[in-house]
Specification:
The structure holds two protein chains of two kinds. By secondary structure, chain A is α+β, with helices and mostly antiparallel strands. Chain A is built from nine helices and seven strands. By secondary structure, chain B is of the alpha+beta class. Chain B folds into three domains: about 15-255 and about 395-475, FAD/NAD(P)-binding domain (3-Layer(bba) Sandwich), CATH 3.50.50; about 260-390, Flavocytochrome C3, Chain A, domain 1, CATH 3.90.700.10; about 485-625, Up-down Bundle (Methane Monooxygenase Hydroxylase, Chain G, domain 1), CATH 1.20.58. The termini of chain B are far apart. Classes of the chains: A alpha+beta, B alpha+beta.
Chain lengths: ~250, ~675
């Protein structure tokens, strides 16, 4: 069995943000249709490193749906931010190359590959990413919408809050408070909805200025890495235009 | 001390209700509670936006009848009862199917991007077990879109102040507080057996805390991970339901586990290909020649066996899931007609699910989400090639037993504190974790509906219970909470010290193999006996594991040891229930007992936890549960309320068989007949 195919992983380990990081190497048996998650699952069944041959604590990582709709398992795989579930071993390492796994860098580290993305959920509060509903009691049918409107809204609504766009964005860094592409795109989504747009002004005001639309440096990295191919740059451009209009002429209508 | 009010306890604390689980059931419960003015604490293993509800693909059922087919909630009720082989109580189903059109409208108002018709109305598609277009959908990621809509509304309540009796904001108190990355360890029950809160653990710091709550609602989903690989998300271990069961909650119909016919096999999970693929015209087939070497797309029409359509001309590929899964299993395992691979020289356990005859733009508009999953994980283009699929464990019809109060017209008394109440006073359940709506088999696109409806019923029920309760949980003695916290801390400390030889993840793999092979599509008593013996051994071995990681920060191994032990306890409930039920009904199929046996088995399986031999768990099956709700004594037997649709043999060979009596009603009342 020494000839059996294996998967080689090099994983960044860190107990907490305040402790020193190290890399552990693991080698696990290859399985058909294997992805990074199933390789990590193999590691924890026998967490022995290649270098020390010692048992170490199993790697901690975040995951849930394993089909790229929840956003949990986002990490950096061979230098690129993406979901670990859709990272198939045969595609990432077709000839059995070593695969490097690291946590995202733009969020506080929790442990190993796990980071704390709670700021993204707070940002959704800042931009009021919801329709202001009167209540959940029966009020009859919703507003009619054209298929075209649905086809514009649906892709925007698939954002999993995974953080890939923030990770890839050069404007998101320690010295900036840029809210990032995903929250701005949610402004576009809710300002498209027939009832949502009744509060368009509040959302635009929330993303004006340096921390909002003006913070975008147009690097376009976000659209490159978005797993759902959300037109994030279009969203920023549109929201930016609406925000400018509101800034210049909003007082006329208020 | 001041008197207790609607908002504050005698001690002046804000009286909150605890919801465990942040999927559709939990979030809907929370929204209904907030609307009733009740502040909520939500606990979830993951940020609620990442809950398992995101995995639901195809859609949500509601008899809105926009296609001129004469559909109605009455027909939806009948088809749901019939599809569930008459094991579900019918008044709760009626409550749900009557509310369904309003629920879909509500979701539309929340901004769910449902697919539209050219006139701008909601579009509906077909699903299994019905001939009507009854399923509203948002592409093929409907669950994700519904979850996001509820998540957004709950997030809004995170910004809303709690108001006191005079309408003044109470500083620092918001209507919703979220505890994400928290694991529920146990319920806190007082000397009278009333649920007063929970003990939970922060999965980042591993701190254990006791939380009072005037009521607790479990909305923690199903236990699919007991079967190892399934269509479920990794958090679906059933740990909270198992903990509640071990503290005295009745678990009902555990043996009814739905196997979905069409999933993609892989190493870590079996990814679902939604029934909507068939609802939109997808066809299931195997080559007539079992040694067919050509690729699927190259096999001519005349050489394909569309076996579902051949055997069930009435409903075709849209027979209910239990039937479709058995037919696929039969074709692959017993007849050896699965897709042949010349590379391996074997008939694989795979059949074709074929969409290639449908125009690409239509597929893109209606099914892109699932086709993207197939493309990403299999690396083949499903627009050009028939997909290769096989059944996978998908959903638990069984779950925590919950009550209901029947109204005069056969539906539910809205706001009755008995609705969604478990037999532990103050503990409620909603969503997949309850057993209420699907009987022996769930119809596709009824799960999103039952989750949301469960929350809509649970919220007002809890609000009524809280209104009628005597002492608030916030006025219970602190020793109750301190004691519960210490118990759980001691248990956790003991886990951290476990240094046995067994690897918990390996043990889980063994459990899953037994459950998957012998407790899914086909069940044989001799094999179930072996599974139960294996569960005995596994339970003993689970006390001799090695925790692998002793870190005091985020420690997923220690957490998993706890989940594993809870999974083993629930696995016994599932396997023992299957062993006992000597009949075939819905998803529960025994070749040795092929017929449904209403005389002996038209009843709810009610399991109560007991201590067994050698420190293991045992199951005590009862015929009645009783509990005391704010002074009202309630006794409920295991008889199924079939007062609205009389049980009859279940046959999908003939079109319209599932809705025959509702159709008769219509003929009798010509004023409402429309088809």
């Amino acid at each position: 069995m020494s000839q059996a195919k294996t998967v080689k992983l090099k994983i960044k380990r860190q107990e907490s943000a305040n402790t020193e990081a190290r890399y552990d190497r693991f080698e696990v048996p290859w399985l058909p249709q294997m992805n990074i998650i199933s390789a990590l699952m193999e590691v924890r069944k026998n967490p022995v490193t290649c270098d020390s041959k010692q048992k170490v604590a199993p790697v901690n990582w975040e995951s849930n749906c394993l089909e790229e709709v929840c956003g949990a398992c986002t990490m950096i795989i061979n230098g690129r931010v993406r979901q670990a579930c859709t990272a198939l071993i045969d595609q990432v390492a077709p000839s059995g190359e070593e695969i490097t796994l690291e946590p995202m860098t733009k969020f506080p580290l929790v442990r190993d590959l796990v980071v704390d993305r709670s700021r993204m959920f707070n940002d959704l509060k800042t931009v009021k990413a919801w329709v202001q509903l009167d209540g959940t009691h029966e009020l009859g049918a919703g507003p009619r919408q054209s298929p075209e409107n649905q086809e514009e809204a649906y892709p925007l609504s698939r954002c999993m809050t995974c953080g890939s766009c923030l990770e890839a964005c050069p404007q998101v860094n320690d010295s900036s408070n840029f809210i990032g592409p995903s929250a701005i795109s949610q402004v576009r989504l809710f300002n498209l909805h027939p009832s949502g747009k009744m509060h368009a002004k509040e959302r635009l005001e929330a993303v004006m200025g340096e921390d909002g639309v003006a913070g975008c440096g147009k690097a376009q990295n976000c659209v490159e890495v978005c797993p759902k191919e959300i037109p994030l740059v279009d969203s920023i451009t549109q929201v930016s235009r609406e925000a400018t209009k509101h800034l210049l002429f909003g007082w006329l209508f208020s | 001390m001041a008197a207790k009010t609607a908002i504050r306890s005698e001690s002046g604390k804000v009286r909150r209700v605890i919801v465990v689980g942040g999927g559709l059931g939990g979030l809907m419960t929370a929204i209904k509670l907030c609307e009733a003015g009740v502040p909520v604490d939500i606990f979830s293993l993951v940020p609620v936006k990442r809950s398992h509800s995101v995995c639901a693909q195809g859609g949500i059922n509601a008899s809105v009848n926009t296609k001129g087919e004469g559909d109605s909630p009455r027909i939806h009720l009948e088809e749901t009862s019939y599809g569930g082989d008459f094991l579900a109580n019918q008044p709760p189903i009626k409550g749900m199917t009557d509310a369904a059109p309003g629920i879909v409208y509500m979701l539309d108002r929340m901004g769910v991007p449902f697919n539209r018709t050219p006139e701008g109305l909601l579009d509906f598609r077909r699903f299994g077990g019905t001939l009507f277009h009854r399923t509203a959908f948002a592409g093929a990621t409907t669950g994700q879109q519904l979850l996001y809509a509820l998540d957004e509304q709950v997030r809004r309540y995170e910004t809303v102040d709690v108001e006191d009796e005079n309408g003044m904001a109470i500083p620092g108190e918001k209507m919703v507080r979220k505890f994400e990355f928290w694991d529920m360890l146990s319920l806190i029950t007082d000397g009278q057996g009333v649920c007063r809160g929970i003990v939970a653990q922060d999965l980042k710091s591993m701190q254990i805390e006791a939380f009072p709550g005037d009521a607790v609602c479990l909305a923690t989903g199903g236990p699919g991970i007991i079967f190892g690989k399934s269509t479920n998300s990794v958090i679906n271990t059933g740990t909270a339901a198992s903990a509640a069961y071990q503290q005295g909650a009745c678990y009902a119909n555990g043996e009814f586990i739905q196997v979905h016919p069409t999933a993609i096999p892989a190493a870590d999970k079996l990814r679902l290909i939604s029934e909507s693929a068939r609802g939109e015209g997808g066809r299931v087939w195997v080559p007539k020649n079992p040694k067919e070497a050509r690729r699927g797309r190259d096999v001519p029409e005349s050489e394909r066996d569309y076996f579902l359509e051949r055997r069930y001309p009435g409903y075709g590929t849209l027979v209910p899931r239990d039937i479709a899964s058995r037919e696929l299993f039969l074709a692959c395992f017993h007849e050896g007609r699965g897709v042949f691979t010349s590379r391996t020289g074997k008939n694989e356990n795979e059949v074709y699910l074929d969409l290639t005859h449908i125009p690409k733009p239509t597929l893109k508009r209606k099914l892109a989400g699932i086709l993207e999953i197939y493309e990403k994980f299999v690396g083949e283009d499903p627009y050009e090639n028939p997909m290769r699929v096989f059944p996978a464990v998908h959903y638990s019809m069984g779950g925590l037993w919950v009550d209901f109060e029947r109204s005069a017209d056969g539906g539910l008394v809205h706001g009755s504190p008995r609705n969604q109440a478990t037999n532990i006073p103050g503990l409620y359940a909603a969503g997949e974790v309850d057993y209420q709506y699907h009987g022996a088999n769930r119809l596709g696109a009824n799960s999103l509906l039952s989750c949301i409806w469960g929350g809509m019923a649970a919220g007002p029920a809890i609000a009524s219970y809280r209104k009628g309760m005597g002492k608030s949980a916030y006025d219970c003695s602190s020793s109750l909470f301190d004691g519960a916290k210490k118990r759980e801390q001691d248990k956790y400390d003991a886990i951290l010290k476990m240094d046995g030889a067994e690897n918990p993840f390996e043990l889980h793999g063994e459990l899953a193999q037994h459950m998957l092979i012998d407790v899914t599509i086909e069940r044989h008593n001799d094999r179930l006996d072996k599974v139960l013996a294996a569960i005995d051994t596994l339970e003993e071995r689970s006390r001799k594991v090695n925790v692998l990681d002793t870190s005091s920060r985020m420690n997923q191994s220690a957490q998993f040891v706890r989940h594993l032990q809870n999974m083993i306890v629930l696995a016994r409930v599932i396997a023992q229930g299957a062993r006992n039920r000597d009949e075939s009904r819905g998803a529960h199929f025994k070749p040795a007992f092929k017929e449904r046996d209403d005389a002996n088995w038209l009843r709810t399986t009610m399991a109560m936890h007991a201590d067994g031999a050698n420190g293991n768990s045992a199951v005590n099956y009862v015929r009645e549960v009783s509990y005391n709700l704010n002074g009202q004594q309630v006794n409920v037997s295991d008889a199924v309320d079939v007062s609205l649709v009389k049980p009859r043999p279940r046959k999908y060979e003939t079109a319209g068989a599932a809705s025959a009596t509702a159709a008769d009603d219509k003929k009798a009342a010509p004023a409402t007949a429309s088809t």
